[in-house]
Design a protein that fits this description.
Length: about 425
Amino acid sequence: MDDRYSKNKKKSNKKKKNNGGKKKSNNNNKISAEQKLHNHVYDWVFHDSISPPASSVITTCADDFGVRRSFVGKVVFELHSHTICSDGYLSPTALVQRAHRNGVNVLALTDHDTMAGIPEASEAARKLGIRLIPGVEISTIYTPSEESGNEEPVHVLAYYGSCGPSRCEELENRLANVREGRYLRAKNMLLKLSNLNMPLKWENVVKIAGDGVAPGRLHVARAMVEAGHVENLKHAFSRYLYDGGPAYSTGNELNAEEAVELICQTGGVAALAHPWALKNPVGVIRRLKAAGLHGIEVYRSDGKLSAFSDLADTYGLIKLGGSDYHGKGNHDESDLGSVNLPVPALHEFLKLARPIWCDAVKSILQRFAEDPSDANFEKLARYGKIKNLNGSLNSGKNVVELCLSSWLLREERQDAEFENLRLKLSRTEGAVMVQL
């Protein structure tokens, strides 16, 4: 009896061991939840015209349906950057090139109160295989309702799809007014500095800002350094130009809630920039969330995120982040791609943004369907050339196909409203002439 028991026990243990080994093997072959999210992000980043880097594939496994899929290496998003079109030091092309060298796959150009650099950056990004998110950082003023005199500056980031804003003229008119206010603001700063025995020439500030660029605090600070009034930019800001400082001034900034509403109305994702710089972050977040705010910068290269991560959870905001790169060339500045955005955060961003951007595409193409003219086609491509342009398009339907294949994933293009647009434009007479 003892021998039989011993043999049965050995067989049982062997069976358990074999079953355990098989189960472990199945687990290794299954795609984890995070790997699935990674693949969803990857599919958007590299859809259609943009090819993944050859070194990105790391392994292949079977998903829940037995389909074998390739997992990719890290996908790098950079969601906050500036060029010489506002207060940065690099041209849009040079910014994209640096992002490419740093391994960035998705770059959002978010100059202050202007989208002037988007077309150039878009062309450079297309050549280098980077997906560009057209963006802008809007200067606003937040005024607590209970303390009407206690204003503070708030910056709101807007992220648009490849087609750009759905109501571009409206957005540009509002931004142009803010930029005009920047000239008045800079002159007021120079007046205050003169009263502090630190005179500056207006011509020098304008020259530093660059041709057609609305001057900002950074340009005034650089003029202060050149004139010998301060040792460096940090000194200029910490002593004179900080929010509420002795040489600080405001311009034509939008109301913070108004800016969020404008972004939502023009087909963008609205995110609060650098909340750690705010005096009253909770009050600002609460009010902007009510106005339609989608997200908040939480992730930073220095790893400080806990308090704002909790606030994001409290108010149901997606968690974002970026380097806020200006190209100053000093060691204190975070470089492009240095902020690590985890895969779940990227997935949540795209999960929220893609339907918004898809609706913007519908709105833009609907206007083209109502008036399929050459002028309106140029508006479609204002933020960068659409792929595969080859001179003359023989119908408005071809225009729709061209735009959809450049801007949206395959499943997004299979929408009933897009099919109606195709049918509406299928009999468009004449050719749309594209100026290459």
